[in-house]
Design a protein that fits this description.
Elements lengths: L3 H9 L3 H14 L5 H17 L5 H21 L4 H21 L3 H21 L6 H14 L13 H14 L4 H14 L3 H14 L4 H13 L3 H16 L7 H16 L7
Helix pairs in contact: 1-2, 2-3, 3-4, 3-5, 4-5, 5-6, 5-7, 6-7, 7-8, 8-9, 9-10, 9-11, 10-11, 11-12, 12-13
């Protein structure tokens, strides 16, 4: 799957037409492989989160389910490494779970992450150097620890520290998942008000993807929380310009960014601009 690194780069840059083209090439090179619907599902998921939109939600869920179904077919045929198939299934469950969490459904999201956790844990036990699997287990551990009050039905609630350990290992050693791990970790750090750590993560992510909204949004969040209005004004302006020039802009994020620019202008003593 040599196209995967290029696909992840296009997604980090928000280039969804290019990502669809890469998925089409992936389908042509590997017809019937369960990685194909998972790649397409990842494009739809990233687009929804980026645009704060539900467009593509039904297609995303169908693609994730198709990935799982195709994995099961390949398992019965014995045509592929079981570790790879378990990773794809776990990734499909995990991405669906993260979407439910984002939509405000912690119980539904954690249940799917729990299913993914079992698959990732099995991969790690059998093949400890399959470092991309640590992202899924780390996301489960960190999320469950934060929603522990909702999860009395779980036999064991992991510690948040164990989730961070997994995520850092993903950053340091994974093949595909380094920047996905960073983009998740930065929001955990912001929730904890560890702004120094969040700023460091943003800098690490932007060293590779300087214009990525996945790192510009947490950069803006840190600047607003620290009342660094001049910096926040620049970052919000950069994001606004990106959305205004994006073919998929639906107006939601631009409205929020105009509001943030208003707050910045007012805080900087420029009421007329506000």
């Amino acid at each position: 799957m040599d196209l995967y690194p290029a696909l992840l780069d296009t997604l980090m840059g928000g280039h969804y037409r290019a990502a669809d083209s890469l998925c089409a090439q992936l389908a042509a090179d590997h017809p019937g492989h369960p990685a194909v619907p998972y790649a397409l599902a990842t494009v739809r998921y990233t687009h929804m989160i980026d645009m704060e939109d539900s467009v593509g939600r039904a297609e995303f869920l169908a693609l994730a389910d198709t990935c799982v179904a195709w994995c099961r077919v390949w398992e019965k045929r014995g045509e592929h490494d079981r570790t790879v198939l378990d990773y794809l299934k776990g990734s499909a469950y995990s991405t669906k779970g993260l979407l439910l969490l984002h939509e405000g459904n912690p119980l539904g999201g954690i249940r799917l992450l729990f299913m993914a956790r079992d698959l990732f844990a099995g991969i790690i036990a059998a093949q400890p150097d399959f470092y991309d699997a640590y992202l899924g287990r780390g996301a489960y551990r960190a999320s469950v620890a934060r929603y522990a009050s909702y999860l009395k039905w779980l036999p064991v609630v992991p510690t948040e520290g164990s989730g961070w350990d997994d995520l850092w290992l993903t950053v340091e050693k994974s093949r595909f998942s380094r920047y996905s791990a960073l983009s998740a970790m930065v929001w955990f750090a912001i929730e904890d008000r560890d702004f120094a750590l969040a700023d460091s993560i943003v800098q690490l992510g932007r060293a590779r993807f300087p214009t990525a909204r996945a790192f510009l949004w947490p950069k803006l969040a840190v600047e607003v929380r620290q009342r660094r209005w001049a910096d926040a004004n620049v970052t919000a302006g950069t994001l606004l310009n990106q959305y205004l020039n994006h073919p998929d802009n639906n107006g939601y994020e631009t409205t929020g960014l105009y509001w943030r620019l208003m707050i910045c202008a007012d805080s900087l003593g420029r009421p007329n601009e506000a």
